[in-house]
Design brief:
The protein contains 13 helices and two strands. The chain is an all-alpha fold. A hairpin with a 7-residue loop joins strand 1 and strand 2. Helix 6 packs parallel to helix 9, helix 9 crosses helix 10 and helix 10 packs antiparallel against helix 13.
């Protein structure tokens, strides 16, 4: 919205700063961060009063989690609120990619909110049916896929770009929409599975958002794409503002989610943020790089898939408990140890993902 202040500029004054994506990204970060600090405590107080007993704790979960009983959930409302406010203030609202990513984020947030509300109101861990959540997620992803294809340059429509290999594109044709469904729905659920310990999910989400924001800015500038030999996607630079807002909102949330957490993110936050990251990957044509950057989330999801399939086949378990962070809890690792080591892994994977921009 503030971008339109450039209309008051003569090219050399303060208003000219609003032309620059990097300046507005910094503004979005600070706005989202302040939003988190200002509204975090009041929101937590409201959630505590409304929810009473807080988020239900699974009976079959690690024993240490029973001490967290009474902690309110739906803290994702703080992140989504900060993200939405900062993006609407600082981004160009005539950019279709901004609206596409916001649509995916808010839609998955609504699914997560419904799930959290069902869990809290009924005081059980069942929530909304998994089939219903999956169906709604697929519908959202189909809409996102069709919009992304329409917004992309003709030469990139239905195409899958390969990292490292210069100018290489694979035409997915009719498989493009199913592929996007896998990316967005898979991302949303992978982040959701990762959100099992205080602070575990939010920092890797912030790291991934920062990484994908840099990638979005690079592929949205023709001079950068020529230098890096990556595909130019006009308009994606504005996604940096969304990513900066997500980073700022996440940092504000982490203030209250740091161990011991005063509030849980809940499905409201984890599904929304996972869907948002998947949508950014689709918009920027870096879906495979996202699999590297978000490798921690992939690992968490794979641990669940492997556990379920192996148990159905043999009646035995590969891990002491899935997702894999619970496996290390069962082995006796302290919760902060698991969280910080997983943060380190997420940062390493992000650096590898960024390196693919230049390794050609």
């Amino acid at each position: 919205m503030l971008y339109w202040l450039t209309a008051l500029s003569d090219g050399g004054d303060f208003f000219n700063l609003f032309r620059y994506i990097t300046f507005r990204a910094g503004g979005a970060f600070m706005t989202a961060l302040l939003f988190g600090f200002l509204f975090g405590k009041p929101l937590i107080n409201v959630l505590r009063r409304k929810q009473g007993k807080g988020q239900p704790i699974r009976d079959d979960g690690p024993e240490g989690h029973f001490t967290k009983a009474g902690t309110p959930t739906m803290g994702g409302l703080l992140i989504v609120g900060a993200l939405l406010t900062a993006t609407l203030i600082w981004a160009r609202l005539d950019n279709p990619f901004v609206w596409l990513v916001l649509f995916v984020t808010l839609s998955f947030a609504l699914i997560g909110f419904a799930d959290d509300y069902a869990k809290v109101s009924k005081q059980n861990t069942a929530g909304v049916s998994g089939k219903v959540r999956l169906l709604l997620g697929i519908i959202i992803a189909v809409i996102a896929a069709l919009c992304a294809r329409a917004f992309h340059p003709e030469a990139l429509q239905n195409q899958l770009a390969l990292p490292v290999f210069k100018d290489t594109l694979i035409n997915l044709g009719y498989f493009y929409v199913p592929f996007v469904i896998c990316v967005i729905v898979g991302s949303a659920n992978a982040v959701n599975l990762t959100d099992g310990l205080d602070g575990l999910a939010i920092m890797p989400v912030m790291i991934a958002a920062g990484t994908l924001g840099v990638i979005a800015y690079a592929v949205g500038r023709v001079d950068f794409t020529e230098y890096l030999d990556v595909h130019y996607v006009p308009g994606t630079g504005e996604i940096l503002i969304f990513a900066a807002a997500l980073f700022g909102g996440g940092l504000g949330f982490l203030w209250y989610n740091a161990p011991p957490a005063a509030v849980f993110m809940g499905d409201t936050g984890s599904l929304a943020l996972g869907g948002a990251l998947g949508a950014i990957a689709v918009v920027t044509k870096h879906e495979l790089v996202w699999a590297i950057v978000g490798g921690l989330f992939v690992l968490e999801a794979l641990s669940v898939i492997i556990q379920v399939l192996y148990f159905k086949r043999t009646g035995r378990r590969v891990f002491l408990m899935a997702p894999i962070h619970h496996h290390y809890e069962k082995k006796g690792w302290a919760e902060p140890t698991i969280v910080i080591r997983f943060w380190i892994i997420a940062l390493i994977l992000a650096m590898i993902g960024l390196a693919t921009l230049k390794v050609r």
